[in-house]
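In the current project phase, our protein records have gained a structure token line. A sample record follows, to show the layout:
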Amino acid sequence: MNKKIHVGILFGGKSAEHEISLLSAKNVIDALDKTKYEPVLIGIDKSGRWLMNKPSEFLLNSTNPKLIALNKTNSENVALTPQSEGRLMSLNSGYLDKTVDVVFPILHGPFGEDGTIQGLLKLAGVPFVGAGVLGSAVGMDKDVMKRLLRDAGIPIPGFLSFASNRPPKFKDVSRELGLPLFVKPANLGSSVGISKAKDETGFSKAVGDAFRYDTKILVEEAVQGREIECAVLGNDDPQASVPGEIIPTREFYDYDAKYVDENGARLEAPAKLNADTVRRVQELAIRTFQALNCEGMGRVDFFLKTDGTLLVNEINTIPGFTKISMYPRLWALSGISYTELIDRLIQLAIERFAHEQKLRTSHDS
């Protein structure tokens, strides 16, 4: 009998998207092929502590997106250290008799999706699912991401970025980008801290709210068009799923519409698009994925204007895995079940790690 692969599932995190990560992790754990993989659950609380607990006792209110939380009772405080090759350490008693063979980070936002965890896992010598340090970092920072896409000739909406020590002036940005405007933190996802501003009063409030979450914010033009999403899977030869469409019933596709209000948006998958538009979406999704040095997985979000123009809004390098999330749903419609999708992502991580291990680390004359 083959030994099961120990999959360390990292979730929670020191981020405003903590609860979404818990919901995503629950679905991944439920769908994991237990005949092939043994999950090792590592929850990260909002202070950044890594905790291990029994799977059956790890989550409180697991079906409620508003109340879901880590159960810290009887949890072991653990860590992965450089050169540990996956062996977990208890901060109370030293090394544990527990090793992870590969890590699946299901962490949304800063300290998880931005390259920080990915760098730690590289130092620890452990394969991990998803983009590496660079792809994660540029995918998280919307300002840098959009600059790279623009340089690669990929069409994007108009935007301006501002640091907290030089906040935007309404007259200047509205003159350049028009009205209404979207204001968002540069380094956050799940629509946290995003506002739509229609006038100067709303703009000032939106700027203040965005700066609560980040020291850098983006101001973007409001694009009139359909919201299309496409999932990407792979390393060197990525493939794109059938596209889907988000049809918000609220002002825009905000946090509540994504995760709390089941009636906040309608997800139409596959999207009602002609064959040529489907092809263009898929090709541009792969171009975006490769231009940003991504690997493993990514969900590329588009605006489709009435004249047929496609604009890339952003990429999510660790997309949501909740029961209503578009990434697993699009792959299911493309012929890859949730369980098979997780299997492929883990295998892609192991393959990349094996390839990297063959690279030389010293100079031979």
Observations:
- The mean pLDDT is 91.
